[in-house]
């Protein structure tokens, strides 16, 4: 990132990386959308040339701390959109010199964020203090509170979960590697590595700034270069508000996940039910496809959105009398792809005869919590399954 002037030692933290690289990291998938981030340091940018050079998005510095506004923000922000790039704005945080809510308010007034389908959620740039103590003189707890207050203001005014830009060293040193913000999209800055580090409980990064020394047509001199953890369509979905984390299907071994408790599964399912998510077989929310199997994948905290065909790869059949909260009931396996398959999350029996049960379900038009007839209304071929890594 760039604040008022280029401060290489602050970008991604010198403790984490010592030098940027020009090449695209080999671990990134070829379809991952590329983009840049710029500030007043970069001056006039020819965004038409940036777009022609294959870039798909651009982040632009809006504000820094309590008083600085980039003189190039309006021109750069509008220029990116006019060139057909997905755009985003970021605030360089100064936690030691002003209240979080005040900095957020000034940032949002400058950006005038609009849910226009071409603007990414507002970005909070959390990196080492370029002018003093790396953590701005704050304890890890104070830093977490500051971040929370800033993001709360963003959420209140834009209804979007703000993106967090940070480096592994800053996050670990200054927040205690907190997992408190793992539902916010992560933009990680880490140079000279083939794959960014895992930090703060995030299942996957959304954006990765992999170098501060990129060469892109339309920008004079070196520029920060990034990859979105997903396709161009998934990037557009994030801008449109139909995905909260970047990658629609965070990459890794298909279906892998850490062990999860039954209570955690229900809590995750309830989140979509309390604030109903529109059903779609194409859109994404919280990084997961918003159909029935994507919903189960989210609740089980898998690293990708499985289908009714592939859910058996991470689960096993059980008997009706073995059902517990967090298990699933559906028609799964070969031949159940697309509209042919369906699955629900079992919560509890609704009667002593076990002929009805309460379930969480992703179904048109949106997520519901409702009572169903066992095994499923009008369907005798639905069977119960249990996630291989669920614990009581």
Descriptive notes:
By secondary structure, this protein is of the alpha/beta class. The chain has two domains: 8-240, TIM Barrel, CATH 3.20.20; 260-391, endopeptidase domain like (from Nostoc punctiforme) (endopeptidase fold (from Nostoc punctiforme), Alpha-Beta Complex), CATH 3.90.1720. Helix content is 22%, strand content 23%. The chain is built from eight helices and 19 strands. The strands form four sheets. An eight-stranded mixed β-barrel has the order 1-2-4-5-6-7-8-9, surrounded by five helices. A six-stranded antiparallel β-sheet has the order 13-18-14-15-16-17. The chain has a two-stranded parallel ribbon with strand order 10-19. Strand 16 and strand 17 form a beta hairpin. The longest helix has 19 residues, at 140-158. Residues 2-23 and 244-256 have low confidence and may be disordered.
Gyration radius (Cα, Å) is 22 Å
**In percent, how much strand structure appears in the residues?**
15-25%
User: Which architecture of the largest domain does the CATH hierarchy give at level 2?
Assistant: Alpha-Beta Barrel
Tell me the CATH superfamily of the largest domain. Glycosidases
Family: Belongs to the glycosyl hydrolase 25 family.
Signal peptide: 1-29
Pfam family, one: Glyco_hydro_25
Keywords: Glycosidase, Hydrolase, Signal
């Amino acid at each position: 990132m760039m604040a008022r002037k280029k401060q290489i030692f602050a970008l991604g933290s010198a403790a984490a990386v010592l030098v940027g690289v020009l090449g695209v990291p080999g671990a990134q998938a070829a379809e991952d959308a590329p983009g840049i981030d710029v500030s007043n340091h970069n001056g006039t940018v020819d965004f038409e040339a940036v777009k022609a050079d294959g870039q798909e998005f651009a982040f632009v510095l809006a504000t820094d701390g309590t008083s600085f506004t980039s003189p190039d923000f309006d021109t750069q922000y509008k220029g990116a959109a006019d060139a057909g790039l997905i755009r985003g704005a970021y605030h360089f945080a100064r936690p030691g010199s002003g209240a979080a809510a005040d900095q957020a308010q000034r940032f949002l007034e400058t950006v005038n964020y609009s849910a226009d389908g071409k603007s990414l959620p507002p970005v909070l740039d959390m990196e080492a203090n370029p002018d003093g103590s790396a953590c701005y003189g704050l304890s890890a707890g104070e830093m977490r509170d500051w971040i929370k207050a800033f993001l709360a203001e963003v959420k209140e005014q834009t209804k979007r979960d703000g993106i967090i830009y940070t480096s592994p060293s800053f996050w670990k040193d200054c927040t205690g590697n907190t997992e408190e913000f793992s539902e916010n999209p992560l933009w990680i800055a880490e140079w000279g590595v083939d794959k960014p580090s895992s930090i703060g409980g995030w299942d996957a990064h959304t954006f990765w700034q992999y170098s501060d020394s990129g060469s892109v047509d339309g920008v004079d001199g070196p520029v920060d270069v990034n990859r979105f953890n997903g396709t161009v369509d998934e990037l557009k979905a994030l801008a449109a508000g139909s995905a909260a984390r970047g990658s629609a299907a965070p990459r890794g071994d298909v279906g892998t996940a850490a062990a999860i408790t039954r209570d955690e599964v229900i809590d995750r399912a309830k989140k979509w039910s309390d604030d109903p998510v529109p059903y779609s077989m194409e859109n994404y929310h919280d990084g997961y496809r918003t159909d029935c199997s994507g919903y189960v994948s989210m609740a089980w905290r898998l690293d990708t959105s499985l289908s009714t065909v592939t859910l058996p790869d991470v689960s096993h059949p059980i008997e009706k009398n073995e059902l517990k909260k967090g298990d699933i009931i559906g028609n799964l396996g070969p031949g159940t792809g697309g509209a042919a398959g369906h699955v629900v999350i079992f919560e509890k029996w609704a009667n002593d005869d076990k002929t009805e049960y309460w379930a969480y379900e992703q179904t048109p038009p949106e997520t519901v919590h409702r009572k169903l007839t066992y095994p499923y209304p009008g369907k005798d071929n639905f069977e119960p399954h249990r996630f291989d890594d669920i614990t009581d």
